[in-house]
Design goal:
Elements lengths: L11 E3 L7 H6 L4 H34 L6 H25 L12 H10 L6 H8 L4 H14 L7 H14 L1 H11 L13 H23 L1 E3 L10 H13 L8
Antiparallel strand pairs: 1-2
Helix pairs in contact: 2-3, 2-9, 2-10, 3-8, 3-9, 4-7, 5-6
Length: 254
């Protein structure tokens, strides 16, 4: 669906009362590199939102299973749901923090931060204000204040940004090892222990927290989860499906 020129992209709340048209924003960005960052951050936005949607559906599904005694056939379906959810979340988190090589250049949060570190001279108050498009002095002061809050300890350096990129991967190491050695590949030296459900949730929250900060830096907009994209009644539909899968058919009378 074509976006109206005055509508903000899905998942973004404009910090100025009126947003410029998409084409105008693209041509009025302070640097060509900034336009690339906006393209990548919006791709990452779709990935983050997709993982949150999966998490929401999974929680509704597991809630519906409480106090239900599953028959054998339903248990097979449940096992299938478990593997689909865990594999999708694990690979999704890995994709978000993937590291580029000489053979590939993934669109990932790790690579985005690394690219910003290579062009850290572009991260200035003046460029941020230019992206904001303030209409008056008051809005300009708001933009300057927002930029200052993003970097309370001063402007970032190439070294600090690269450390942050690597810290994200290190913090989600359990998930990365599971993805590399058990899902994407079957490694001979795969770990015996599996990640806990909490590990997936924690890794997503960690990545999303960093993502929100860079989304604000690159777009001057705040990322939020608009769960209205889920169709009305979707959770009730899951509950009905769970109940149907565990109820044995009533035998017909002879």
């Amino acid at each position: 669906m074509d976006q109206d020129e005055h509508d903000a992209p899905a998942g973004m709340t404009p910090l100025t009362p009126q947003s410029s048209p998409t084409s105008q924003r693209a041509t009025s960005l302070p640097t060509e590199r900034w336009a690339r960052w906006q393209h990548d951050i919006n791709e990452l936005k779709a990935q983050v939102t997709n993982l949150y949607e999966r998490q929401l559906v999974w929680k509704a599904y597991t809630t519906s299973l409480k106090q239900i005694e599953m028959i054998e056939l339903a248990s097979i379906l449940h096992d299938w749901m478990i593997h689909n959810y865990s594999d999708a979340m694990t690979i999704g988190i890995r994709r978000l923090i993937d590291r580029g090589t000489t053979r590939n250049e993934p669109v990932s949060l790790h690579e985005l931060i690394t690219d910003i570190s290579d062009h850290v001279a572009d991260i200035t108050v003046a460029n941020y204000v230019a992206v904001w498009h303030p209409r008056d002095q008051f809005e300009e002061s708001r933009a300057v204040s927002a930029f200052t809050q993003l970097f309370p300890d001063g402007l970032p350096t190439q070294d600090s940004l690269r450390k942050e990129a690597e810290l994200i991967r290190a913090s989600a190491d359990t998930i990365l090892v599971h993805a590399d050695k058990r899902i994407a590949h079957t490694d001979r030296d795969r770990p015996a222990a599996l990640p806990k459900w909490r590990d997936l949730d924690d890794a997503l929250e960690l990545v999303a927290k960093v993502f929100r900060r860079y989304f604000l830096l690159i777009t001057c907009g705040e990322y939020f989860l608009d769960m209205m994209i889920m169709p009305f009644g979707w959770d009730a539909a899951i509950e009905r499906a769970c109940l149907a899968s565990v109820q044995r058919p009533t035998p017909r009378s002879p």
